[in-house]
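Data availability (excerpt). The following record was deposited with the supplementary files.
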Amino acid sequence: MPVALFAQTENVEAGRSASSIEIDYANPQTYIVGGLEIEGLNYLSPSQITSILGIHEGNEITIPSDELSSAIKRIWAQRVFSDIGFYVDSLSATKDTAFFKMVVQERPRVISWNYSGIKNSERDELKEKMNLRRGGELSEYVKTSSIKTIKEYFKEKGFLNVDVDVISAPDSTIKNATRVTFDIKKGNKVKIKEISYEGQGDVKKFKLDRSMKKTKDAKWYNFFSSKKFNEKEYKNDKESLIETFNELGYRDAKIVQDTIYNVEEDRLGIHFVIDRGKQYYFRNITWTGNSEYTEEQLNSVLMINPGDVYDVVTMQKRLFGGGKESELNISQLYRDQGFLFFNVSPVELAIVGDSVDVEMRIVEGKPATFNNILVNGNTITNEKVVRRAVFTRPGYLFRQSDFERSVREISSMGHFDPEYAADPEKGYTLMPNGVNNTVDIAYNVQEKPDSQLELSGGWGASTFVGTVGISFNNFSVANIGDKTAWKPVPLGDAQNLAFRFQTNGTYYQALTASFSEPWLGGKKPTSLNFQAYYTKQTNSYTSYYYQVLDDSEYMKIYGASLSLGRRLKWPDDYFVEYHVLGWQSYALQDWSYNFIFSNGVSHNINYTYSLTRTSTDQSLYPRQGSEFSFTLALTPPWSLLKKGWKDIDYDSMTSQDHYNWIEYNKWSFKGAVYSQLVGDLVLMARAQFGYLGYYNRKWGYSPFEGFLVGGDGMSGYNSYGSEVISLRGYENYSLTPYENGYYAGHVYDKFTVELRYPVILQPTSTIYALAFLEGGNCWSDIKDFNPFQIKRSAGAGVRVYLPMVGLLGVDWGWGFDSTGQKSQFHFVIGQQF
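Predicted structure:
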């Protein structure tokens, strides 16, 4: 450390005092501080330095002393100086007062921190991680810690051979300032090529490989997994490896040695030497401290019998959870009855040979109740929207299942980032109070954009068709009068307001408006939905560069629907029922373009009952849960209400008279189940069935409200209000029978198995890849229905969710039974069920 304390003698010829100052270092002396002069400061003030030194005028100080050394060390510890000199400048005439001088050289201040050799995204992440401020100093500590942070950052990404050079260059315009550049050479990403085991006995390599979540080699079954080596995750995976042996009863298993070696450039191998030890078995299992449940009841949940392999891992899961969500565990059993402070400790009482006696020591505690329920992070959505969705209420008995259900409900609302809300470290906090047996809960949410704007256009049939649509998915009618709530429209009450307009100028116009209120009245989950739409087509047409306006021939469609939905309590509160009243009218004048009649009016008045059950953990990328719905749509049986209906000859009627009042009964069932296989890899299995029936065999099937099966499932324009059913690998509607001038799809089925794997799960975007097997078919008559006579396909695709646009996707499918082009690409907009 370049700090000196010495006496300075002045030379008369050199302009210095002739008096001399002698300091005897062998005999420390005490002086009164007469003053302290500091030279060399550019950025700091003298008062800042003296406050750190603790040496002030009038103080007493011993020279030399530990006190003075400590003061200088405090200055040096600030790391803002590259050189420090401390001198006795002069003494008073009485020799009891000393005047000091401190000469310092400040380190150059950094006016810019730059990074080279890396991507812009990596640079931004490093800036946030390192938090180096402009105007800071470049000390050896800053260099060392910065290099360490950079290397650790890239190690987590699989770059193990990172080289960092710190380059500093003086600034040409600012005195004592420098510009610093971290020149980073990442090298190639290091990946694991092979993993081998020694001493594992009859335990298969596949089982051991699968136990490690982040450490994977290049085997085929790790195709979807990253092969990069992450030192931090490697430590966790070694623990998971030992747990695999523990599950098989090897309670003493340990890793004797693990060797990491280079196989080739940028590829490494790992070799584990394992000592399994002896395999153990359960002998006696006893319980103490239990009064709420009997020993038989607890054993029925634990499901471990004498003679079973001593599987500590499974025992822990059945005691504390962590297994499959559908599996009950002892902790959940108690916590669902309010015993939040419940605890159980498995104790090995005796080990005899290869057998282990275990005693489960229970402390039940007292039932707890919910106290304060807090909501944080809802900057747009009103707090009442979150509170009404959760099942935890102040004063209610604590139930673990109610708490978990509340987290799922928040995740699936659509207004918040579902990954954030479900993260135990971020999304929620339990704050138990053992003194008064209560618990506070804080639900932490992160808003995400959920309103959507649609702007699209396309050229077809010699004309341009434009579409504009907007959907406010968190609208608030109550805040319309509040000017401060317009951002750009009043938001926050989870209502939906949507408009969509499509036109080519003259030939075709379509307008749809809808509004939904999920909690009518604000006290119960009763939803109100209203929709109205209008469509008009004329015989105007486009000829090259101009349009011919003519509306003497037209078809107009008017429609509206009103629905009420409510959550049920039986069979459970995942069920919701909807009652819908709908009206639709067709008005045609001299219309001869692909419709069942040319002149007249046709009416469709219907009632729809729908029963749904949804228990998925979130809406965009569900990992578990299910979706089921049963729907029955009915019109009045108009033909049966006519006098002498049995004798009416419908074959002699005109189509306009025949379908003046549309009648049908429409039945449909849809179900999907989501299963989390490994990590975020999800298997989705789905089945669908639909049937459009009739009341009167003579009246026949309705040409309206049927099914159009095949293709991408995009609900493009169709005149008869048919339901479009996707079946990838086939052309649009190609599986639908065509009879009497219209598509006659009156019954269909469809089955899908889909593997999904996420690429990005962020509030700003969700991207996942998928592979599918699909089959289905469509028939014109229920008598021809055969559930095994399906058209098969397979393929792959990707889905991208952007908050302002919605869900977009592209699929490639191969139709095994297609009579046309077997290879098909499909573009998808919106969620397809």
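Summary of structural features: Confidence is low (pLDDT under 50) at residues 6-19.
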